[in-house]
Amino acid sequence: MKRRLIFLAAGAVAASLTVGAATAQEIKLPQSLTLTAYDTGTSGFNIAVAIGKMMKEKYKTDVRVLPAGNDIARLAPLKTGRAQASAMGIGSYFASEGVFEFATADWGPQPLRLILSAASCNAITLGVAKDTGVKEFKDLKGKRIGQVVGSPALNQNAFAILAFANLGKSDVKFVEFSGYGAMWKGMLNNEVDAAIASNISGQAREMEASPRGLVLPQTPVSDKAGWERLHKLGPYFYPHKTTCGAGGVSKEHPLELPAYPYPIFMSYASEKSDLIYSIAKSMIVNYADYKDGAPGADGLELKRQILSWVLPYHEGTVKAMKEAGVWTAEAQKHNDMLIKRQDTLAKAWAEFIKAKPPEDKAAFAAAWMAKRKDALTKVGMEPIF
Fold first, then answer.
1. E strand or H helix at 76
2. Beta bridge partners of 179
3. Chain segment 277-316, per-residue pLDDT in tens
4. Is the pTM of this model over 0.85?
5. Enclosing domain of residue 209
6. What is the CATH number of the domain that holds 322?
7. How many Å apart are CA 127 and CA 124, to the nearest integer?
8. Are residues 133 and 254 in the same domain?
9. SS3 state of residue 292
10. Helix or strand or coil: residue 253?
11. Is 32 exposed, middle or buried (0-12, 13-18, 19+ CB in 10 A)?
Protein backbone atom coordinates (compact mmCIF):
# COMPACT_ATOMS: atom_id res chain seq x y z
CA MET A 1 0.00 0.00 0.00
CA LYS A 2 1.41 3.39 -0.94
CA ARG A 3 2.29 5.49 2.05
CA ARG A 4 0.77 8.74 0.90
CA LEU A 5 -2.13 8.66 -1.52
CA ILE A 6 -4.00 11.86 -0.93
CA PHE A 7 -6.79 12.91 -3.26
CA LEU A 8 -8.89 15.76 -1.90
CA ALA A 9 -12.60 15.77 -2.65
CA ALA A 10 -12.44 19.23 -4.19
CA GLY A 11 -15.56 20.69 -5.70
CA ALA A 12 -13.73 20.94 -9.00
CA VAL A 13 -13.60 17.16 -9.43
CA ALA A 14 -14.91 16.44 -12.90
CA ALA A 15 -18.39 14.98 -13.04
CA SER A 16 -17.15 12.37 -15.49
CA LEU A 17 -15.10 10.82 -12.70
CA THR A 18 -18.01 10.27 -10.32
CA VAL A 19 -19.25 6.73 -10.00
CA GLY A 20 -22.91 6.79 -10.90
CA ALA A 21 -25.62 8.98 -9.40
CA ALA A 22 -26.98 7.79 -6.07
CA THR A 23 -30.62 8.39 -5.32
CA ALA A 24 -31.03 10.92 -2.53
CA GLN A 25 -32.56 9.60 0.66
CA GLU A 26 -34.00 11.33 3.69
CA ILE A 27 -31.77 11.71 6.72
CA LYS A 28 -33.21 9.50 9.45
CA LEU A 29 -31.29 9.65 12.70
CA PRO A 30 -32.43 7.70 15.78
CA GLN A 31 -33.62 9.37 18.97
CA SER A 32 -30.23 8.77 20.54
CA LEU A 33 -26.66 8.10 19.42
CA THR A 34 -23.59 7.22 21.44
CA LEU A 35 -20.12 8.24 20.31
CA THR A 36 -16.73 7.79 21.96
CA ALA A 37 -13.91 10.32 21.83
CA TYR A 38 -10.68 11.41 23.48
CA ASP A 39 -10.76 12.96 26.95
CA THR A 40 -12.93 15.95 27.87
CA GLY A 41 -11.32 19.16 26.62
CA THR A 42 -9.56 17.60 23.64
CA SER A 43 -10.34 18.92 20.17
CA GLY A 44 -11.81 15.54 19.19
CA PHE A 45 -14.23 15.57 22.13
CA ASN A 46 -15.19 19.21 21.50
CA ILE A 47 -15.85 18.57 17.81
CA ALA A 48 -18.02 15.54 18.63
CA VAL A 49 -20.03 17.68 21.05
CA ALA A 50 -20.48 20.39 18.38
CA ILE A 51 -21.82 17.80 15.93
CA GLY A 52 -24.09 16.43 18.65
CA LYS A 53 -25.51 19.91 19.19
CA MET A 54 -26.24 20.18 15.45
CA MET A 55 -28.00 16.80 15.44
CA LYS A 56 -30.08 17.78 18.45
CA GLU A 57 -31.19 21.06 16.86
CA LYS A 58 -31.81 19.64 13.38
CA TYR A 59 -33.08 16.11 14.07
CA LYS A 60 -33.94 16.03 17.80
CA THR A 61 -31.28 13.34 18.27
CA ASP A 62 -29.63 13.15 21.67
CA VAL A 63 -25.91 12.47 21.18
CA ARG A 64 -23.95 11.11 24.11
CA VAL A 65 -20.18 11.50 23.87
CA LEU A 66 -18.16 9.12 26.06
CA PRO A 67 -14.60 10.35 26.83
CA ALA A 68 -11.92 7.67 26.99
CA GLY A 69 -8.21 7.94 27.73
CA ASN A 70 -6.87 5.41 25.22
CA ASP A 71 -7.68 3.65 21.95
CA ILE A 72 -8.79 0.40 23.55
CA ALA A 73 -11.26 2.25 25.76
CA ARG A 74 -12.59 4.26 22.82
CA LEU A 75 -13.10 1.24 20.58
CA ALA A 76 -14.46 -1.27 23.12
CA PRO A 77 -17.98 0.30 23.31
CA LEU A 78 -18.28 0.03 19.51
CA LYS A 79 -17.11 -3.57 19.52
CA THR A 80 -19.76 -4.50 22.08
CA GLY A 81 -22.53 -2.48 20.43
CA ARG A 82 -22.84 0.13 23.20
CA ALA A 83 -21.76 2.94 20.83
CA GLN A 84 -22.33 3.42 17.12
CA ALA A 85 -19.35 5.54 16.14
CA SER A 86 -16.18 7.12 17.50
CA ALA A 87 -14.15 10.28 17.03
CA MET A 88 -10.90 8.33 17.02
CA GLY A 89 -7.32 9.25 16.30
CA ILE A 90 -4.87 7.25 14.21
CA GLY A 91 -5.44 4.35 16.61
CA SER A 92 -8.31 3.43 14.29
CA TYR A 93 -5.69 2.63 11.63
CA PHE A 94 -3.65 0.52 14.04
CA ALA A 95 -6.78 -1.37 15.05
CA SER A 96 -7.61 -2.01 11.40
CA GLU A 97 -4.09 -3.37 10.89
CA GLY A 98 -4.14 -5.47 14.09
CA VAL A 99 -0.86 -4.06 15.40
CA PHE A 100 0.57 -2.74 18.69
CA GLU A 101 -2.04 -3.00 21.48
CA PHE A 102 -4.41 -4.67 19.02
CA ALA A 103 -2.01 -7.58 18.42
CA THR A 104 -3.65 -9.48 21.29
CA ALA A 105 -6.04 -12.42 21.56
CA ASP A 106 -8.90 -10.09 22.53
CA TRP A 107 -8.55 -7.89 19.47
CA GLY A 108 -6.65 -8.61 16.26
CA PRO A 109 -7.43 -6.71 13.03
CA GLN A 110 -10.74 -4.83 13.24
CA PRO A 111 -13.03 -4.17 10.22
CA LEU A 112 -13.32 -0.41 10.70
CA ARG A 113 -14.73 2.11 8.27
CA LEU A 114 -14.38 5.87 7.83
CA ILE A 115 -17.34 8.20 8.09
CA LEU A 116 -15.66 11.63 7.80
CA SER A 117 -12.39 13.04 9.13
CA ALA A 118 -11.17 16.54 9.94
CA ALA A 119 -8.20 18.03 8.11
CA SER A 120 -7.91 21.58 9.42
CA CYS A 121 -5.28 24.30 9.79
CA ASN A 122 -3.73 22.63 12.84
CA ALA A 123 -0.91 20.11 13.34
CA ILE A 124 -0.49 16.89 15.30
CA THR A 125 2.98 16.87 16.71
CA LEU A 126 5.20 16.72 19.77
CA GLY A 127 4.54 19.80 21.84
CA VAL A 128 7.62 20.75 23.87
CA ALA A 129 7.83 22.74 27.10
CA LYS A 130 9.39 26.09 26.24
CA ASP A 131 11.43 26.14 29.44
CA THR A 132 13.50 23.19 28.16
CA GLY A 133 15.24 25.44 25.65
CA VAL A 134 14.50 22.96 22.85
CA LYS A 135 14.41 24.61 19.42
CA GLU A 136 14.70 21.58 17.10
CA PHE A 137 13.56 18.00 17.63
CA LYS A 138 17.17 16.83 17.76
CA ASP A 139 17.45 18.85 20.99
CA LEU A 140 15.10 16.35 22.67
CA LYS A 141 17.98 13.89 23.14
CA GLY A 142 18.02 12.90 26.81
CA LYS A 143 14.68 14.63 27.49
CA ARG A 144 11.52 13.12 29.03
CA ILE A 145 8.77 12.12 26.56
CA GLY A 146 5.20 11.33 27.59
CA GLN A 147 3.65 7.94 26.77
CA VAL A 148 0.07 6.70 27.32
CA VAL A 149 -0.58 3.11 28.35
CA GLY A 150 -2.89 1.38 25.85
CA SER A 151 -2.66 4.14 23.23
CA PRO A 152 -0.54 3.06 20.26
CA ALA A 153 -1.64 6.15 18.31
CA LEU A 154 -0.07 8.63 20.70
CA ASN A 155 3.01 6.52 21.32
CA GLN A 156 3.73 5.65 17.69
CA ASN A 157 3.27 9.29 16.73
CA ALA A 158 5.96 10.24 19.23
CA PHE A 159 8.33 7.58 17.86
CA ALA A 160 7.72 8.74 14.27
CA ILE A 161 8.40 12.41 15.03
CA LEU A 162 11.51 11.56 17.04
CA ALA A 163 12.66 9.55 14.00
CA PHE A 164 12.46 12.74 11.93
CA ALA A 165 15.37 13.98 14.06
CA ASN A 166 17.06 10.58 13.82
CA LEU A 167 16.33 9.88 17.48
CA GLY A 168 15.39 6.40 18.68
CA LYS A 169 13.82 5.05 21.86
CA SER A 170 17.19 4.79 23.59
CA ASP A 171 17.92 8.48 22.99
CA VAL A 172 15.12 9.76 25.25
CA LYS A 173 13.45 8.91 28.58
CA PHE A 174 9.84 7.74 28.41
CA VAL A 175 7.37 8.48 31.21
CA GLU A 176 4.08 6.53 31.19
CA PHE A 177 0.64 7.93 32.04
CA SER A 178 -2.83 6.37 32.27
CA GLY A 179 -4.40 8.67 29.69
CA TYR A 180 -3.95 11.61 27.33
CA GLY A 181 -5.27 14.14 29.85
CA ALA A 182 -3.01 12.78 32.58
CA MET A 183 0.00 13.05 30.27
CA TRP A 184 -0.63 16.73 29.65
CA LYS A 185 -1.15 17.34 33.35
CA GLY A 186 2.31 15.79 33.64
CA MET A 187 3.60 18.41 31.21
CA LEU A 188 2.15 21.18 33.36
CA ASN A 189 3.65 19.63 36.48
CA ASN A 190 7.14 19.31 34.95
CA GLU A 191 7.03 15.49 34.91
CA VAL A 192 7.79 15.36 31.17
CA ASP A 193 9.30 17.70 28.58
CA ALA A 194 7.32 16.77 25.45
CA ALA A 195 4.04 15.09 24.55
CA ILE A 196 1.89 14.43 21.48
CA ALA A 197 -1.14 16.64 20.82
CA SER A 198 -3.21 18.42 18.27
CA ASN A 199 -2.09 22.00 18.76
CA ILE A 200 -5.71 23.20 18.88
CA SER A 201 -6.56 21.00 21.87
CA GLY A 202 -7.44 22.56 25.20
CA GLN A 203 -4.41 20.87 26.74
CA ALA A 204 -2.00 22.48 24.26
CA ARG A 205 -3.51 25.91 24.85
CA GLU A 206 -3.40 25.42 28.62
CA MET A 207 0.27 24.48 28.36
CA GLU A 208 1.02 27.54 26.23
CA ALA A 209 -0.54 29.79 28.88
CA SER A 210 1.30 28.07 31.75
CA PRO A 211 4.60 29.20 33.28
CA ARG A 212 6.40 26.45 31.32
CA GLY A 213 5.11 27.63 27.93
CA LEU A 214 4.93 25.64 24.68
CA VAL A 215 7.02 25.44 21.50
CA LEU A 216 6.54 23.40 18.32
CA PRO A 217 9.80 22.48 16.57
CA GLN A 218 9.37 22.31 12.81
CA THR A 219 9.60 19.35 10.40
CA PRO A 220 10.43 21.15 7.11
CA VAL A 221 9.25 19.39 3.95
CA SER A 222 12.69 20.20 2.48
CA ASP A 223 14.23 17.70 4.91
CA LYS A 224 13.49 14.68 2.72
CA ALA A 225 15.65 12.31 4.75
CA GLY A 226 13.83 13.33 7.93
CA TRP A 227 10.43 12.78 6.33
CA GLU A 228 11.52 9.42 4.95
CA ARG A 229 12.45 8.31 8.47
CA LEU A 230 9.18 9.70 9.85
CA HIS A 231 7.09 7.89 7.19
CA LYS A 232 8.65 4.54 8.03
CA LEU A 233 6.95 4.73 11.42
CA GLY A 234 4.01 6.99 10.57
CA PRO A 235 2.90 6.52 6.93
CA TYR A 236 -0.35 8.38 7.69
CA PHE A 237 1.40 11.73 8.34
CA TYR A 238 1.80 14.44 5.72
CA PRO A 239 3.81 17.71 5.75
CA HIS A 240 1.50 20.57 6.61
CA LYS A 241 1.73 24.35 6.63
CA THR A 242 0.14 24.98 10.02
CA THR A 243 -1.62 28.32 10.45
CA CYS A 244 -3.63 28.00 13.66
CA GLY A 245 -3.49 26.78 17.23
CA ALA A 246 -1.14 26.97 20.20
CA GLY A 247 2.62 27.29 19.83
CA GLY A 248 2.85 30.78 18.36
CA VAL A 249 1.22 29.74 15.06
CA SER A 250 -0.88 32.03 12.85
CA LYS A 251 -1.55 32.79 9.20
CA GLU A 252 1.13 35.47 9.47
CA HIS A 253 3.55 33.08 11.19
CA PRO A 254 2.94 29.57 9.81
CA LEU A 255 5.03 26.57 10.83
CA GLU A 256 5.94 23.47 8.83
CA LEU A 257 4.66 20.62 10.98
CA PRO A 258 3.35 17.06 10.60
CA ALA A 259 -0.39 16.38 10.44
CA TYR A 260 -3.05 13.82 9.68
CA PRO A 261 -6.84 14.03 9.87
CA TYR A 262 -8.21 14.24 13.42
CA PRO A 263 -10.69 13.41 14.68
CA ILE A 264 -11.43 10.42 12.47
CA PHE A 265 -15.13 9.64 12.74
CA MET A 266 -15.47 5.92 12.16
CA SER A 267 -17.58 2.84 12.86
CA TYR A 268 -17.46 -0.88 12.33
CA ALA A 269 -18.22 -2.16 8.83
CA SER A 270 -21.19 -4.04 10.30
CA GLU A 271 -22.93 -0.83 11.42
CA LYS A 272 -26.15 -0.31 9.46
CA SER A 273 -25.60 1.44 6.15
CA ASP A 274 -28.68 3.66 6.54
CA LEU A 275 -27.47 4.90 9.92
CA ILE A 276 -23.97 5.74 8.71
CA TYR A 277 -25.45 7.35 5.58
CA SER A 278 -27.62 9.58 7.79
CA ILE A 279 -24.71 10.47 10.09
CA ALA A 280 -22.44 11.33 7.14
CA LYS A 281 -25.16 13.12 5.20
CA SER A 282 -26.16 15.22 8.21
CA MET A 283 -22.52 16.25 8.71
CA ILE A 284 -22.19 17.15 5.03
CA VAL A 285 -25.38 19.17 4.52
CA ASN A 286 -25.28 20.89 7.92
CA TYR A 287 -21.59 21.76 7.86
CA ALA A 288 -22.30 25.50 8.29
CA ASP A 289 -24.18 24.79 11.52
CA TYR A 290 -21.24 23.22 13.39
CA LYS A 291 -18.04 24.33 11.60
CA ASP A 292 -17.50 27.14 14.11
CA GLY A 293 -18.70 25.08 17.08
CA ALA A 294 -15.22 23.93 18.07
CA PRO A 295 -11.65 24.55 16.89
CA GLY A 296 -10.87 22.16 14.04
CA ALA A 297 -14.50 21.37 13.17
CA ASP A 298 -14.06 23.29 9.93
CA GLY A 299 -11.75 20.45 8.81
CA LEU A 300 -14.81 18.23 8.27
CA GLU A 301 -15.74 20.20 5.15
CA LEU A 302 -16.49 17.84 2.28
CA LYS A 303 -13.82 19.27 -0.02
CA ARG A 304 -11.15 18.53 2.61
CA GLN A 305 -11.89 14.80 2.82
CA ILE A 306 -9.02 12.54 1.79
CA LEU A 307 -10.65 10.01 -0.52
CA SER A 308 -7.64 7.70 -0.82
CA TRP A 309 -5.97 7.32 2.56
CA VAL A 310 -5.21 4.40 4.92
CA LEU A 311 -8.76 3.42 5.97
CA PRO A 312 -11.72 2.45 3.75
CA TYR A 313 -14.97 4.43 3.83
CA HIS A 314 -18.22 2.90 5.05
CA GLU A 315 -20.69 2.12 2.28
CA GLY A 316 -23.13 4.56 3.90
CA THR A 317 -20.63 7.40 3.54
CA VAL A 318 -19.81 6.35 -0.02
CA LYS A 319 -23.50 6.73 -0.87
CA ALA A 320 -23.59 10.21 0.69
CA MET A 321 -20.43 11.23 -1.20
CA LYS A 322 -21.84 9.94 -4.49
CA GLU A 323 -24.91 12.11 -3.94
CA ALA A 324 -22.61 15.07 -3.31
CA GLY A 325 -20.81 14.34 -6.60
CA VAL A 326 -17.32 13.92 -5.14
CA TRP A 327 -16.82 10.15 -5.09
CA THR A 328 -14.47 9.13 -7.91
CA ALA A 329 -13.54 5.97 -9.75
CA GLU A 330 -10.04 6.34 -8.31
CA ALA A 331 -11.49 6.53 -4.80
CA GLN A 332 -13.61 3.43 -5.37
CA LYS A 333 -10.61 1.47 -6.62
CA HIS A 334 -8.57 2.51 -3.59
CA ASN A 335 -11.45 1.72 -1.22
CA ASP A 336 -11.83 -1.76 -2.72
CA MET A 337 -8.09 -2.35 -2.23
CA LEU A 338 -8.28 -1.34 1.44
CA ILE A 339 -11.26 -3.63 2.03
CA LYS A 340 -9.33 -6.46 0.37
CA ARG A 341 -6.47 -5.69 2.74
CA GLN A 342 -8.80 -5.94 5.72
CA ASP A 343 -10.27 -9.20 4.38
CA THR A 344 -6.75 -10.60 3.97
CA LEU A 345 -5.91 -9.69 7.56
CA ALA A 346 -9.19 -11.16 8.85
CA LYS A 347 -8.53 -14.47 7.09
CA ALA A 348 -4.95 -14.57 8.40
CA TRP A 349 -6.20 -13.85 11.92
CA ALA A 350 -8.78 -16.65 11.78
CA GLU A 351 -6.12 -19.10 10.63
CA PHE A 352 -3.72 -17.84 13.31
CA ILE A 353 -6.23 -18.29 16.15
CA LYS A 354 -7.30 -21.72 14.86
CA ALA A 355 -3.65 -22.85 15.00
CA LYS A 356 -3.62 -22.24 18.78
CA PRO A 357 -0.92 -19.54 19.12
CA PRO A 358 1.24 -19.21 22.25
CA GLU A 359 -0.45 -17.86 25.39
CA ASP A 360 2.44 -15.64 26.40
CA LYS A 361 1.55 -12.08 25.36
CA ALA A 362 4.91 -11.21 23.80
CA ALA A 363 5.21 -14.56 22.00
CA PHE A 364 1.61 -14.24 20.78
CA ALA A 365 2.25 -10.78 19.31
CA ALA A 366 5.50 -11.86 17.64
CA ALA A 367 3.86 -14.94 16.09
CA TRP A 368 0.89 -12.89 14.84
CA MET A 369 3.11 -10.22 13.30
CA ALA A 370 5.02 -12.92 11.40
CA LYS A 371 1.74 -14.45 10.19
CA ARG A 372 0.42 -11.01 9.26
CA LYS A 373 3.54 -10.14 7.27
CA ASP A 374 3.40 -13.43 5.38
CA ALA A 375 -0.30 -13.04 4.51
CA LEU A 376 0.07 -9.49 3.19
CA THR A 377 3.28 -10.23 1.28
CA LYS A 378 1.61 -13.17 -0.50
CA VAL A 379 -1.06 -10.87 -1.99
CA GLY A 380 1.47 -8.18 -2.93
CA MET A 381 0.68 -5.74 -0.12
CA GLU A 382 3.19 -3.94 2.10
CA PRO A 383 3.21 -5.16 5.72
CA ILE A 384 4.32 -1.65 6.80
CA PHE A 385 4.67 -2.77 10.43
1. helix 71-79
2. none
3. 999 999 999 999 999 999 899 999 999 999 999 999 999 9
4. no
5. 124-259
6. 3.40.190.10
7. 9
8. yes
9. coil
10. coil
11. exposed
